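Q: How would the structure tokens look for this protein?
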Amino acid sequence: MSFRLSSFVGVMLVCATVTAGDWPQWMGPTRDGLWTETGIVESFPADGLPVKWRVPIHGGYAGPAVASGRVFVTDYVPAGAAGENDPGKKIELNGTERVLCLDAVTGEEVWKHEYDCAYKISYPCGPRTTPTVDEDRVYTLGAEGNLFCLQTADGKVLWSKDLKQEYKTTAPHWGFSGHPLIDGDKLICLVGGEGSVVVAFDKLTGKELWKALSASEEAGYCPPSIIEAGGTRQLMMWTPDAMNSLDPETGAVLWSIPLKPQYNMSIMMPRQSGDYLFASGIGEVGALFKLNSGKPAATVEWTGTPKTAAYCANSTPVVVDDVMYGVDCKGGQLRAVEFKTGKRLWESCAPTTGERRGGHGTAFLVKNGPRFFLFSETGDLILAKLTPKKYEEISRFHVLEPTGECFGRSVVWSHPAFAEKCCFARNDQEIVCVSLAK
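A: Here is the predicted structure in token form.
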């Protein structure tokens, strides 16, 4: 049911020109990790998957978007060495943020847009947010709040915003990370500042349409999302203080319930299944909300304890038939959890950290037919069956070297794109296209 509902909402959000062969934004056309393309491999060849191309790239956590035969991705070219990562400290670094447009078939550069950008954030590798493509425009948000609307044909700047300057705010500790959302004629962004934690812009002109919410400290990192409940379309914004439901047309608050993760790390996009909504984060903070079926309202069904649920950070979980599959940020395991009760069904580190173990283990989950593609922090692409009973790995292929760093481990923390029967993935050195055609 969660897939049917999210797909319905997603159709309302994404332009009609998007096809099953496109991946125009973070987590796919409908932001639910569902890839509907057919003719995809059922297991990997013994000698590995065909690599169509590899192209050099610089640093970033931002995944690629693919639409109309083009790949859009952002990176950062530093002017000097960043030094060692420290989750407790912001690092100052000068450099250039870039938006790259590549040919999806060949990897050849079509155009690029670049601008000077000084960083003062923790883990200053590069941009965090996946580009959002809407018809002939692509929207990008840099780690320090540089928001651009570019023409997909040639990279021409149609409009831009310096969010920090315009809304008198600073970058969150780990940089601007909320993937911008297209909703009708609006571009909805996580911004920050007094009364402007979330802002809706006219997607064609950049004019502010409305702004809403304040936060006690930072705005957090959670992407905006749309659900339908109580007969009403609701914009969900999880700030470091509360789960908030807003009217997407006006920004008016419909309901708000406290939910405070540690370190302002409201990250995962809330996931809906029927009349229930779940969100969780670091500090083993999580809650299941019961959505009112007659009006826009909610109550807390249960809150998490260390023995239940999955407390997600780097990747947003996927829900299938009232079972949630997500990665716990403390233990680093992929877990299967009963959505309505929080009961843990199984867990495995095989698709995340492997034998290395450690916190913030990461895998990005995408469902295609009856199987899942999981992109591990190790740089492996994994084909697996996930059921309420077990994790069953079918195939594994090493796509990229893990060039990033987390707590002494080498990692790649970037959500890949699945489009044109291919997987498009990046690290801090290259972006690669791997064929998944049957």
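The two ends are 28 Å apart (CA to CA).

The chain has one domain: 2-435.

Upvote if useful.
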